[in-house]
Amino acid sequence: MESIPHPIPRTVEEVFNDFKGRRGGLIKALTTDVEKFYEKCDPEKENLCLYGMPNETWEVNLPVEEVPPELPEPALGINFARDGMQEKDWLSLVAVHSDSWLLSVAFYFGARFGFGKSERKRLFQMINDLPTVFEVVTGSVKQAKEATPYNNSSKSKPSAKMQPRQSESQPRGAKLSSKEEEESGEEEQEEEEEQGATLCGACGDNYANDEFWICCDICERWFHGKCVKITPAKAEHIKQYKCPGCSSKRVRV
């Protein structure tokens, strides 16, 4: 249950930042904090909701009692379905409802503060540039492994992106033909698109050259080292890395 202790967003940028914060909290609940989230969703309790907070935290709580609520409410009773389906399917279902709730909250603020057509369009475009909670939780976002500076399962293999683009058989002063230049440009564009598509499986943010990343050897998703509390030094001693989600998987009764 949320009483809005945080500043109410009034501009497109403020609403978007509020959206990102809430989204970050929901992603944590469904990935890195999944064990804690699972335990809180006891089917024996009353109807529970998953709330994402603007400060990237989350909580499982009862819905607000006031009618109508101050903000749109998340899906009600997520705990009742927990033991009736496989865990990954249940988490995916909660993720879908979370995406729907995030959009409803963002555009509630837009309606409340009179966003015009251009402001609503800009807000949606900013939101649409981020992967959905469902995409992050299910790993359906395209992961570009070559763009990651560290791959635990192939330490001795240099990334293709670290190799010089110039062929050894190509003289330094030689001029590329127009066709070769076009093909080279297409390859560079593809690599840039792949690099931009690499997203952290925990927070959902994009890859950055100056950040340490690590790949889970089970689900093959990439994570910021800081998000999963793994340093480069610690990674050197890990033979097979399992992300928090894969480490916590077990048969549910």
TrEMBL record:
GO terms for molecular function: histone binding; transcription cis-regulatory region binding; transcription coregulator activity; zinc ion binding. GO terms for biological process: chromatin organization; regulation of DNA-templated transcription. Residues 180-195 have a biased composition (Acidic residues). GO terms for cellular component: nucleus. Belongs to the Alfin family. Histone-binding component that specifically recognizes H3 tails trimethylated on 'Lys-4' (H3K4me3), which mark transcription start sites of virtually all active genes. This is PHD finger protein ALFIN-LIKE.
